[in-house]
């Protein structure tokens, strides 16, 4: 079986090694749902609002159990607020595995992303090398073409030759175009 589950439409996270064989779509979806849920909780615990809320909860707890009448208190200050300590310990004992699970899922996504980045970089490198070879081939082909300075020099040479031919023709008289031989037109007898 491939590295990714064929039934799962979420291709940005790999399937765990222990879940590859014999897992059904329902199990993968259930694990994915649970993973998303724990990531949501871990993400919420990392916000300032969670810290503000937890601080307000603890302050309310301490205020209530310190200043309210003794008959309505549910946690004793004399015992060091044992219930609050137990609640915070329970919260921490669940928070740590959720954070680790979220971190493991992020590591898996990062691995997939790095593999995709590596493949993209290989394609980009191959494309860049191809384009570099094409540019070199074009430069070599362009070197064989005449540039404007070469054409100007050739045109000047041809112009000088034409001017030289014209000046020789007018000096000889007969060779100049449109000139008549000395003595007028020649009539041929029939």
TrEMBL record:
It comes from the Bacteria. Keywords: Membrane, Transmembrane, Transmembrane helix. Residues 1-32, 165-190 are annotated as: Disordered. This is Putative membrane protein. Residues 1-11 have a biased composition (Polar residues). InterPro entries: DUF1003 (IPR010406). The chain crosses the membrane at residues 46-64, 76-101. The keyword Membrane applies. The keyword Lipid metabolism does not apply.
């Amino acid at each position: 079986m491939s590295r990714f589950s064929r039934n799962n439409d979420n291709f940005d996270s790999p399937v765990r090694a222990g879940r590859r064989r014999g897992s059904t779509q329902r199990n993968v979806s259930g694990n994915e749902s649970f993973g998303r849920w724990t990531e949501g909780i871990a993400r919420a615990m990392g916000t300032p609002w969670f810290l503000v809320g937890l601080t307000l909860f603890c302050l309310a707890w301490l205020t209530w159990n310190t200043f309210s009448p003794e008959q309505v208190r549910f946690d004793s200050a004399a015992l060091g607020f044992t219930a609050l300590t137990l609640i915070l310990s329970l919260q921490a004992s669940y928070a740590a595995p959720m954070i680790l699970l979220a971190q493991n899922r992020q590591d898996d996504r990062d691995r997939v992303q790095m593999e995709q980045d590596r493949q993209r970089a290989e394609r980009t490198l191959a494309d860049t090398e191809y384009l570099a070879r094409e540019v070199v081939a074009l430069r070599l082909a362009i070197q064989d073409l005449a540039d404007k300075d070469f054409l100007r020099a050739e045109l000047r040479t041809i112009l000088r030759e034409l001017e030289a031919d014209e000046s020789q023709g007018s000096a000889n008289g007969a060779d100049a175009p449109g000139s008549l031989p000395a003595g007028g037109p020649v009539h041929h007898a029939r």
